[in-house]
Amino acid sequence: VKVALTYILTAIPALGIKGAAWASVVTYAVVALLNTYFIDRLVGLPWDTTEILLKPAAATVGMAAMVVVGYRSLAPAVGSHLAALAAIGLGIITYGLSLIIVRALGPDDMALLGAVKGKMLSRLNPKRR
User: Fold this and answer.
1) CA–CA separation, 73 vs 68, rounded Å?
2) What's the rounded Cα separation, in Å, for the pair 7 and 20?
3) Is 46 in a helix, a strand, or coil?
4) Tell me: the pLDDT tens digits for 48-68?
5) Mean pLDDT value across residues 112-122
6) Taking a C-beta distance cutoff of 8 angstroms, is the pair 33, 1 a contact?
7) In which element (H, E) is residue 53 found?
């Protein structure tokens, strides 16, 4: 899939090298779907679409919006390189907080972050009760 799509998409003048990036995205999506299919077929675990897809997608949208706004706000003042670095940091923080806000992380997930950090973060999540 990767080789075929890279060959096809990079040949499109409007895409050029961006076609290789899109080929990677599609390849990872195909791999994720195949993994999901075989896990479901072999193990038979129930899939909760809200927990697996919608909550992380909502956190991702929030993070992306914050990164774009942060970059566009900072770039004129500090330059594109420093603005990009700051926007990435802002995105990391926003994504983590967004996961807590949409309740995508449970107490067990937060406990994996470490004893102190997990306990501190689990207090922020009303789902822990």
Assistant:
1) 8
2) 8
3) coil
4) 778 888 999 999 999 999 999
5) 58
6) no
7) none
